[in-house]
Write a structure and sequence with these properties.
2 copies of one chain form a homodimer. The first copy, chain A, is α/β, with parallel strands linked by helices. Helix content of chain A is 54%, strand content 13%. Chain A folds into 2 domains: 1-48, no CATH class; 50-260, P-loop containing nucleotide triphosphate hydrolases (Rossmann fold), CATH 3.40.50.300. Chain A is globular.
Chain lengths: 324, 324
C-alpha cells in the first residue's frame, strides 16, 4: 500500500485504521509537530478512541525503564494483545542517546504486527508533550491498540505528570541506599500503582523493598476498605525475570480500578486536567502573541506619553485580540 | 477636613492631592484591594505621576531593613524632601510581626507632614503586590512625593522583582560568613545598585565587604566605560551610623542614571514588564473563570460523550469568553 501524502490527514487516518503502519507513523509526527495537522488528526481519532487501557512506566534515568518496557511488552505480547508503545523523551530526538537505546532494545518487537513503537520528543512548543501525549494515546486507541504503554523519564514535573496520567502507573527504582527516598522526593510515590525494584539481583534490594513498604505505611496506604496499596515487584528486566509477576500486578490493579468507580474517576480527572491545560496554553500563547504585537508597542508609546494608564492599555490590547 | 467616603474616588483623590493624608490612606487601601476602586484610582493618578524617584530597599529577614529605612528617611528628611514609604509585606497585615515592627520603628516619622508611611500586604489575589506596588508608587508621586522608598523582604521571586523595579535598589546584608553568597543565590546581586553592610560593628564586616567586592569583580562590574559598579556602604542603622554615606551613594547612583540613558531605559523596561504582567494576569484570571464556568462542565460532558474533542471544546470555551 502506498502511504498517503503527509497533508492528506483523512486518507492517512483511514489507512492507519486499516492497519497501515507508515500512515500511523505520519499521523504521530503530525501530533508531535502540534500545529493544524495535530488538531485535524485529534478530531478524527477522538470519536473512535477510548477503548484502550494506558500503562505508564517511569523512574529515574538509568533505572532500566526501556529494558523493562521491552521485557514487559514481550510478556504482554504472548497474550496476543495489540500494543502501542510511546517512549517520551523530553530532549530532541536528534541528540538523545536514550532514544537510540530504546530503539535498539525494542527492536525485537519492531517487526511484530501487534506492537507499534514510537519515540516522541518535544518540538520546543510549550506544554508540548503534556498535550501531545494524550492525543497520541487516543490515536493508538482509535487505530486498534488495546494497551498503550507510555514510558517517560521520571524527572521534572511535566514527565511525572505524563506518567501519572495513565490508568495504571508503574514506578521503577533500583536497589541502593536512598533510591526509594529519591522516588518519594520526585513525587513518584504519589503516582505509583505498582513499584518495580529492577536490577533486584544487586545488593540492597531487600532494604529498598523495606523502605518502599515503610513509606507506603507512612502515606496511609493500608490497602483496606477497598483501597489499593501499591504492589512491589522485584525484577531483573535484562533477563526477563519477574515479568509474570509484574504483568499480574498490573492486571490486578486494572481489575481493582474497573470493579470500583476509580477508573471512571481517574479518567474524568484526566479529561478535566486536559481541557484546563489546553485552555491555559491557548491563553498563554495569546499573551505571548499580544506582547510581540505592534499594538503592544503603540500602547506602550501612549503609556509613555501618559495618554492612557497600563490597565487601560491592557484592556484595549485584550479587546483587540483576534477571535481565533 | 472631613474624609470623603470610601467610594468617592475622585473626591478622595482631590483631597489627597491637596495634602489630606487620611484620603491618601483610603486610596492606598483601594489599590491594595485590587478591584474596581484600584482601577479608578490608578486612572486618576496616572497622568499626574512620573515626577518622583523610587528607591528600593531589600535584604534577607532580620538584616535590619526597617531600621535602616527609618534612619535613611530621617537623613533624607533633613534635606526637606517629601517622602513616601511603602513597606511591602507578603503576609497578611494581621499576622505579620514585621508590620508592627515597622510601625514602631517608623513612628518617629509618623507625625511628620513630609513623610507618609504605609504598609502594604497582599490580599491573596495572584500577582497582587507586583501589580499593586507600581500603582501605589504612582499615587504617591501624583500626590506630591519626591522620593518613594519601597522596602521589601528579599525572599521569593515576587519580592525581589518588586525591589528591583526601583530606580535605585539598595540591598542590605549583614556581616557573617556566607551572607554575601546568600544574597547572590537569592538573585539580589543582580538588582543591587548599592550594597549596605548593616550591623557593621559586628565581627566579619571586612570579610563580607571583601566577598561582595569579589563577587562584583566576578560578575564583570568594573565600573569602567561609563558603567556603574555598585557601591558598598557600611552602616549601623540602629545608631544612625553611615547614613550620610548611604544617602550620598544613592544620590550618586541617581546622578549616574540621569546623566546617561540608563534611567530612561530602566523605566521603559519596567513599563514593558508591567503591561506584559497585567495582560498575563488578566488572561490567567480569564482561564480560572472559564474553568469554573458552567460552560466548562457542559463541554466536559460533550467530551465524555465523544461529541467534541478537547481542542474543539477549548475553542468554543475561548469563543464564549466575555468581552470584559
Amino acid at each position: 500500500m502506498a502511504t498517503p501524502s503527509r497533508s492528506d490527514i483523512p486518507a492517512l487516518y483511514e489507512a492507519a485504521r486499516s492497519g497501515h503502519r507508515p500512515s500511523l507513523a505520519r499521523l504521530l509526527s503530525q501530533i508531535e509537530r502540534g500545529a493544524e495537522g495535530a488538531r485535524a488528526t485529534g478530531a478524527l481519532a477522538f470519536p473512535d478512541a477510548g477503548g484502550g487501557y494506558t500503562l505508564g512506566i517511569t523512574g529515574a534515568p538509568g533505572a532500566g525503564k526501556s529494558t523493562l518496557t521491552s521485557a514487559l511488552v514481550a510478556r504482554m505480547r504472548s497474550d496476543e494483545l495489540s500494543i502501542g508503545v510511546l517512549a517520551i523523551d523530553p530532549s530532541s530526538p536528534f541528540t538523545g542517546g536514550a532514544i537510540l537505546g530504546d530503539r535498539v532494545r525494542m527492536q525485537e518487537h519492531a517487526l511484530d504486527e501487534l506492537v507499534f513503537i514510537r519515540s516522541m520528543a518535544t518540538r520546543g512548543h510549550l506544554g508540548g508533550l503534556a498535550l501531545a501525549t494524550p492525543e497520541a494515546v487516543r490515536l493508538l486507541e482509535a487505530t486498534g491498540r488495546q494497551w498503550i504503554v507510555v514510558e517517560t523519564v521520571g524527572v521534572g514535573q511535566v514527565e511525572v505528570e505524563i506518567a501519572g496520567a495513565a490508568d495504571t502507573t508503574v514506578v521503577v527504582v533500583n536497589p541502593g541506599w536512598g533510591d526509594a527516598v529519591q522516588a518519594n522526593k520526585a513525587g513518584l510515590m504519589e503516582i505509583a500503582d505498582v513499584f518495580v525494584i529492577n536490577k533486584s539481583d544487586r545488593a540492597g534490594a531487600d532494604d529498598t523493598r523495606r523502605d518502599l513498604e515503610y513509606m507506603l505505611d507512612l502515606s496511609g496506604h493500608t490497602g483496606q476498605e477497598g483501597g489499593w496499596r501499591p504492589e512491589v515487584v522485584s525484577t531483573v528486566a535484562i533477563d526477563g525475570q519477574g515479568m509474570d509477576e509484574l504483568w499480574e500486578a498490573v492486571q490486578k490493579h486494572r481489575t481493582h480500578l474497573e470493579s470500583s468507580s476509580e477508573l471512571a474517576e481517574r479518567r474524568e480527572r484526566r479529561a478535566n486536567d486536559e481541557l484546563a491545560k489546553i485552555v491555559t496554553e491557548q491563553l498563554e500563547d495569546q499573551a505571548r502573541r499580544l506582547q510581540a504585537s505592534e499594538e503592544f508597542q503603540r500602547l506602550r508609546d501612549d503609556i509613555d506619553h501618559r495618554v492612557i494608564d497600563p490597565w487601560e492599555a491592557a484592556s484595549r490590547l485584550l479587546g483587540s485580540r483576534p477571535a481565533d
